[in-house]
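Please, is this right?
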Amino acid sequence: MLHSFQNQIGIQENFKVLSRNMHVAGFTQDVSQILEKSIAQGLPRFHIRYADIRQPQTDYILHFNLIPQTGCYQFERFDAAKRITNIVERTAEKHYWQQFSLTTGSRFSAAEAAQLLNGRGVSKNGTDWTILDKTDPNSPFKSVAFDMDAALKAMPLPQKMRDVEYKNLYNTLLSGAAKEVKLLINGQPETHKIVAVPKEKDIRVLSQNNQLVALSALQAQSKKQIERAAQLIQKSQGKTVIVDIKRKGGIKS
């Protein structure tokens, strides 16, 4: 009876530790029932399939293993893959799973893993970045140097951006996510999403169909639109003058 009681306490404590470690790694969806049940079974290792509403395009598998001579489990690693949602993708694209260790080497959160799988880069300090090379199974994590602060300061951001706004923008881009900001394009404020592209050592604009666009290309496109609008206005004014002259001529005659 005493041994059973002590074992139950051990399971509960191990459950609390694992739950906390999962939250730290960004896995906050409730899997308490299956986690507690798996711990109680006492298997050498077990895994849990996981889905997160905040990362709807990513599938996860969480791996736990029993630490020798302790009777306790650790959250060892997780696997992540881009979710394939239709038959065309499922037949044309290999379902690529990437392993993310939580005990050795660089550690990434659930959200960071999703960004890496989506081709983005993530960073802890704004200069040393990690990108994922899916073509290299032996060493998929590549390091890239990129000074994002310098790149951000070269962007046509509003001068009145407060420090707290800039810090929020900076931290969002560090995580690999896109952030909506106002940019002064040819002197006119426009709202766009921007994202860090460390491989190109640049910050790019994200188009409406999620394509990366260089700032120079966006400025050139905006300039053409302004010129086209000016030409249309000029033509419209010219037609108005001609019509007015004809009307006046008609009155005189």
The longest strand covers residues 72-82. The mean pLDDT is 84. The CA atoms of residues 3 and 9 lie 10 Å apart. The helical segments are 2-24, 32-41, 87-92, 110-117, 148-153, 163-174, 215-252.
